[in-house]
């Protein structure tokens, strides 16, 4: 549902708005923060910043080509930009490509609120919702499985979690044949 400000309203007072070119500094800081494995590397600070900038450039250039109908949003809480959400809306699934928050908004349940909002939309469209979760993020995996996502595939560094919506009273859905 759209609010009076044109943003898409989510649960718990969160909203989404489309990313704009003016958001680049915010997105750069957010992506830098989300890459702890790089930030904590035993390298000179300028080298780490260079690697992080390469990550930002790669994501900005490659994500739209890698994910069908990629929509890129800024997550807003009471008028303040607090995170990003990027979702690929493919014909057979909706894929959560990125979900990040600024440090002071982490571990407050807002990620869960975004996931629940996406699940509600996926149920409405009867479309599976997927997300690749790194193995070094066990808390995220636990939250997602608690919300009804199931591990569908496991690779060396990530697991693919899938939420398959079902109509009220329907039996559990079969796993999709990807």
Give a verbal description of the structure:
The chain has 178 residues and is an alpha+beta fold. It has one domain (8-163): Aminopeptidase. It is 35% helix and 28% strand. It has five helices and eight strands. It has helices spanning 24-34, 36-39, 45-66, 110-125, 138-146, and strands at residues 8-9, 14-18, 70-77, 80-89, 94-101, 129-134, 150-154, 158-163. The protein has an eight-stranded mixed beta sheet with strand order 1-2-3-4-5-6-8-7, with helices on both faces. β3 and β4 form a beta hairpin. It is globular.
What's the multimeric state?
A: single chain
Distance, first to last CA:
31 Å
- Total beta strand runs: 8
Gyration radius, in Å: 17 Å
Helix content percent band: 25-40%
What does the largest sheet look like? 8 strands, mixed
Tally of domains: 1
Tally of alpha and pi helices: 5
Class from secondary-structure proportions: alpha+beta
Strand order of the largest sheet: 1-2-3-4-5-6-8-7
Compressed to H and E, one letter per element, the order equals EEHHHEEEHEHEE
- Write down the CATH class: Alpha Beta
| Overall pLDDT score | 82
CATH topology: Aminopeptidase
Uncertain stretches? none
What is the CATH homology-level superfamily? Gcn5-related N-acetyltransferase (GNAT)
State which percent range the strand residues make up.
25-35%
Shape: globular
Q: Per CATH, which architecture?
A: 3-Layer(aba) Sandwich
